[in-house]
Structure formats: structure tokens, C-alpha cells
Amino acid sequence: MTDPTPCYIGVDVGLTASKAAAFDAEGNEIGVVHARTPRTAVTAHRHDVDMVALADTVMSLLADLAGKLAADGYVPAGIGVAAHGNGLYPVDASLRPVAPAIASSDSRAQHIVDEIAEEDALRLARETGSIPWAAQPSVLLRWLRDAEPEAYAATRWALSCKDWVTCQLTGVPSADYSDASAFGMVALDTREYSATALELVGLPASDLERFPPLRESGEIVAGLSARAAELTGLPEGLPIIAGCMDCVAATLGAGGRALGDVTIIVGTWAINGVVVPAGTPAPEVTLSALMPDTATMLAMEVAPTSAANLEWLSSSSVPHGQVGGVPATELLAEAATVPPGSDGLLFLPFVNGAPEHPAASGTFLGISGMHRRGHLTRAVIEGVAQYHRVQLDRVLASGADVGDRPWRLAGGGARSEVWAQIFADVLGRSVRRQLTSELGARGVASLLPAALGHDVAPWSVNDEDDLCVRPGPAREAYVRHGEVFDRVLAGMWGPWSEVERYRTDS
User: Fold this and answer.
1) Coil/strand/helix, residue 397
2) Is residue 248 over pLDDT 50?
3) How confident is the model at residue 1 (pLDDT cuts 50, 70, 90)?
4) Which residue pairs from 478-484 have beta carbons closer than 8 angstroms and sit at least 24 positions apart in sequence?
5) What is the pTM of this model?
6) What does the alpha-carbon distance between residue 231 and residue 228 come to, in Å, rounded to a whole number?
7) Cβ atoms of 189 and 277 closer than 8 Å
8) CB-based contacts of 375-379 (< 8 A; 24+ apart in sequence)
9) What gap in Å lies between CA 195 and CA 213, rounded to an integer?
């Protein structure tokens, strides 16, 4: 009888979908299961998460994956979890939710951020590498104190999404440096919690005690609890590491580990990061997250302005109250038949808003009777690429040193040839498509062999040149398209604010 082969499990909880995947000792994907992430958009600005339903979803995914692995002769060696950063998952001392979680796309607390003086925001950025914004745990904890004081009082642990899932697996509250630093809660020079973010929103320094002790991303927190083992069919005591923020995990999965590496992730959120030395002075970006390699961090511009826009278009034709939609592959095939610039149709990719544009909404401009669904799709993916460019321009202007290597393109934009070419043309840079389907799960799982003391070579990625997409003949057209995009974007504050007043007054 053949001995079971060890494998490593990564869980990746996104705002839209949750995944559990297993990888062999070389980092090859050997099994993956998916489910929709339980989430409720209460209003345009309030995005709640049912924490119990989320935990049940992850347990169900792990149970499904465990069955597949056992049937194929694999035995799991450990689990790591990655998930969206920021947001707030509040629990009591018994690790029970005290209120619905708040997703990182939520903007209900924008008014609190608006009250922070610019010099104070800069002080936080200098200390932690991250600026205040509406979905930071500190800001949301202040909102909870004001709006739901009983829940605030009952909150023993202010967790991230990844930490909520990890504590459900282990029964132990934990936090890691990548998540906590991206919260603006870790002083980069000392690598310790800082009360500055709490101070800026009027919370006492004692609220730092609500955040779990910091661990390295690859540090083992505890073994799988008896309850989680019963629910998943995985062995009790299976090692669980602290895990990391999904932006960091996906960057690791895409191979963006070296100083100067740029990784563009086209997911629910637009993630545009460059690996820089850890410490101060930090590049002037929206947020910085410490990497598992203690000498580096990921300087990022991020916003929920990426593939979620295509998902919205996919589902927009479905009758109200139903799920489903036109497959993205079908929409992208139609977009490939439309010329650059979508025959004068422009799209601003803000169906989920953006931290830097609180009133923004998804906006088509230039619609005429000649436009069809392929035009709408191409305009959407062009708009997404252009806003990635806007964010990457900020990264380049931040002081971050960028290497000469092709930028890594991952997520939906990498899997589509037409979209990858649009990215290369819009950015004026060569991009290397990373086609691994579960980058976040792979990235966090890649931390397991070292954590477990296994003699395994670091996992590599496919850097074959045939995956490199270079700017093509449409580059000139997209330069002009970008100029128009920027001018239109700058002129939308008034219309968006007017619509926001209409929406909130109705």
C-alpha cells in the first residue's frame, strides 16, 4: 500500500468568493473547491458579513476538500488562511460575534475619516505606512462605539476576516503582521502595535488590548480544534498558521517577492503593489503591509474598482432577486470584437465606490444607439485598466523603487488575453500573466513547509516569456483614452455628489 503524500492547504476568503485549495510539495495545485462568500449589502455604503455563515462556509469547503484529498491519497500537513484585510469582525471573550462583521468595501464611517486633520493623517502614514480610511478597524471600532455601544462594550477581540476564520479553526484569537500593518496599527520601526490610529478617531489607547497578539504570518497558532475536526473531517491537532492578508498572499502566490517587483491583481479589489524595504520612511501610498520576509513590505494602492465591475455587468441582466448572469468568458469574447476606445464609450469603474472617492458610483459616458453589449464590456474592462493605471501612477510617484522586470498581472485580467493586452497598452509596460487560478490560497499555503520544518524548496512560478504581453499597436490610442479618462474623472465630483445627495435623501 502506498503511503499518503503530504500536501498543504490554503484558504482564501474574498469578498465575493471563498476557496480552499491544496498544493503538493512543489506548489502544484492538486485540488480546489469554491463557494460564494456570505455577504449582505444593506445599503450602497453598508456591506455586512454574516460571521456564522462565513465560518460554516469555510468548514464546508474544508470538508469537501478533505474528502477529495483522501480519495486521491493525500494527507494534509497544515492549513493557512488568507482573507480581505481591514473591515471589522468583532467577537466577545468566547469568540462569538457581537454584531455582523463589516466588510472592507464598507464606507459607512467615512464621516469619521473626514474629521481627521490632514497633518494627523500624515503622521499615521509616516509611522505605519498607511493612511486613515473608512474601512480601517480603528475607524469602524469608533463607529461601533457611537452607533452600537452595547456591541462595542461586548467586543473583546477586534479581528480581521482571516483572524475570524483562524480562530474558528483553532479556538485561539490571533493576528499577523501583514493584516495589522495594513490596518495602520503597527509602527514600522518597532513592529509593535501603535495607538496612533485609535487616537486619531478618539478611541483610548486601552483599545489596543482588543487586538490579538501579533505573530509572524508563518507562525503556528495552534492545532485544529476538536470541533473543527468534527466539522471538516480533518485530523484534530492539524497545525494552523497565523496566515496573511490576501493582498500579500496573492503577491506571494504570483511570485512577487523581490525588492522592486510590481504585482497587479485584478480581483474584486484592484491591488497594485510594489515590494519595498520594510521601515520608514515608507512610500506615500494608501497602505503598506509587512511581508513574511521581515526585511520587506508591500506598498499598495487598492480599491474595490477592479473585476467586481465585470461581475456586476455579468449579473445585471438577471431578473431582480435571482443569481447568475452571462459568463464573463462570453462577455470578454464579445469585447475582443470591439475596437480600442469602445467607439467612444467610457466607463468609470466604481460600482462599489472607492475609499478615495466616497460618493463615486459606476458611470457610463457616451452611450449611443450604436452601442451593444460588447461595447459595454470593453468599456468596463478598459475603465478598470485605466483606474489601475491611476493607482499605479500614485505608487510610482510615492518614492517606491520599481525594478525593470515585467509587471506581474494576476486575476481576471491575466486569464483573458484581450484584457491582458489592454493592460499592457494602457500601462505602456510589459506585463507577465500569472495564470495560477488560486493565487491567494497558494501564497498562504507556501508558508506552511517552512513553518512545519519540512525540507521543501521554495515554490516557483511560471516566468516563461510566452506569458509576457507587451504594448501593441493600440498603445497610442490608449494614451489618448487615458487622458480623456483622467479629465472626466476629475470632473465627476459634482455629479456624483449630487447623485449621492439624491440617493441618501430619498
Assistant:
1) helix
2) yes
3) very low
4) 478/340, 478/341, 478/382, 478/422, 478/425, 478/426, 479/428, 481/340, 481/341, 481/382, 481/386, 481/426, 482/386, 482/389, 482/426, 484/346
5) 0.90
6) 5
7) no
8) 375/338, 375/342, 375/343, 375/345, 376/313, 376/342, 376/345, 376/347, 377/310, 377/313, 377/331, 377/332, 377/334, 377/335, 377/338, 378/335, 378/338, 378/342, 378/345, 379/342, 379/345, 379/346, 379/347
9) 14
Check if the beta carbon of residue 447 is closer than 8 Å to that of residue 241: yes
Q: CA 148, CA 129: separation in Å to the nearest integer?
A: 30
pLDDT tens, position by position, 71-103: 999 999 999 999 999 999 999 999 999 999 999
Give the per-residue pLDDT at 269: 85
The per-residue b/e assignment along 6-44, b for 16 or more CB within 10 angstroms, e otherwise, is bbbbbbbbbbeebbbbbbbbebebbbbbebebbbeeeeb
Task: Report DSSP letters for 180-212, one per residue.
Answer: HHHTT-EETTTTEE-SHHHHHTT--GGGGGGSP
**Percentage, residues of the chain above pLDDT 70:** 98
Any idea how long the chain is? 506
| Predicted local distance difference test score (pLDDT) of residue 317 | 81
How many other CB atoms sit within 10 Å of the CB of residue 190?
9
Q: What number of other Cβ atoms are within 10 A of residue 476's Cβ? A: 12
User: Closest Cα to residue 403, out of 254, 255, 252, 261?
Assistant: 261
In 3D space, the residue among 131, 103, 107 whose CA is nearest the CA of residue 354 turns out to be 107
Under 8 Å between Cβ of 263 and 251: yes
Q: Which whole-number Å values give the CA distances from 434 to 332, 410, 413, 475, in the listed order? A: 18, 5, 10, 22
For the CA atoms of the chain, what is the radius of gyration?
22
Q: What is the pLDDT of residues 427-469, one digit of tens each?
A: 999 999 988 778 999 999 999 999 999 999 889 877 666 789 9
Find cell 455604503 and name the residue. 45
**pLDDT tens digits, residue range 41-66?**
667 778 899 999 999 999 999 999 99
More confident residue, 354 or 71: 71
- The C-alpha angle 169, 39, 365, rounded to 5 degrees, equals 140
